[in-house]
Amino acid sequence: MSVVQLSSQQYVQRLYSDHNAWLNGWLRQRLGCAHNAADLAQDTFVRLLKSPDGLATLRQPRAYLSTIAHGLVVNFWRRQSVERAYLDALAAQPEALAPSPEEREVIVETLLAIDAMLLRLPSKVREAFLLSQLDGLTYAVIAQRLAVSERMVKKYMAQAMLHCLMLAQQ
């Protein structure tokens, strides 16, 4: 039966039956955990179901699946890194100040959204924003470090603040 005769859902089902075991193994090698590999394999096929465009012309399913899965692995590692940093910071706080598990999850999701927003910024904008907000440097010092004018630093900061406002409105 040709791909053209299959619906998108049927094609994803066929991809799943033909390649799920392979994808699980591929992910298991990268993650070292069968449970996380199974979760990300499922997420890969869910992504296909949500965005079936182009499936009819798919010529190398394993390459396509591994590309999607690789992106999910990177997101998984980023989330683990952010969560680990937050939990380390939280461990340094007195227990009376510890948030509930629900509050922790909201905080981690917020940190991930901030991380994603920062990654979308141009590198100099991101660096200027972090130098100002985390290191407390003045615009003049930031300008020297980035080898730009102080006026450019102000533009970078305005751009970063705009992204922060857009994030806050989501």
What is the succession of H and E elements? Answer: HHHHHHH
CATH domain class name of the largest domain: Mainly Alpha
CATH-defined architecture of the largest domain: Orthogonal Bundle
> Which of globular, elongated, flat, extended, rod-shaped describes the shape?
extended
Radius of gyration: 22 Å
- Low-pLDDT runs of 5+ residues are none
Tell me the structural class. mainly alpha
- Largest sheet composition: none
Mean pLDDT: 86
How many helices in DSSP terms?
7
Straight-line distance between termini: 45 Å
DSSP summary, beta strand count: 0
Q: How many structural domains?
A: 2
What percent of residues adopt helix (DSSP H or I)? over 70%
Q: What do we call the CATH topology of the largest domain?
A: Rna Polymerase Sigma Factor, Chain: A
Provide the β-strand percentage band: under 5%
What does the model show?
Keywords: Sigma factor, Transcription, Transcription regulation. By secondary structure, this protein is mostly helical. It folds into 2 domains: 3-99, Rna Polymerase Sigma Factor, Chain: A, CATH 1.10.1740; 121-170, Arc Repressor Mutant, subunit A (Orthogonal Bundle), CATH 1.10.10. Helices cover 76% and strands 0% of the residues. Helix 1 (8-31) crosses helix 3 (61-91), helix 5 (123-133) packs antiparallel against helix 6 and helix 5 packs across helix 7 (150-168). It is extended, with a radius of gyration of 22 Å. The mean pLDDT is 86.
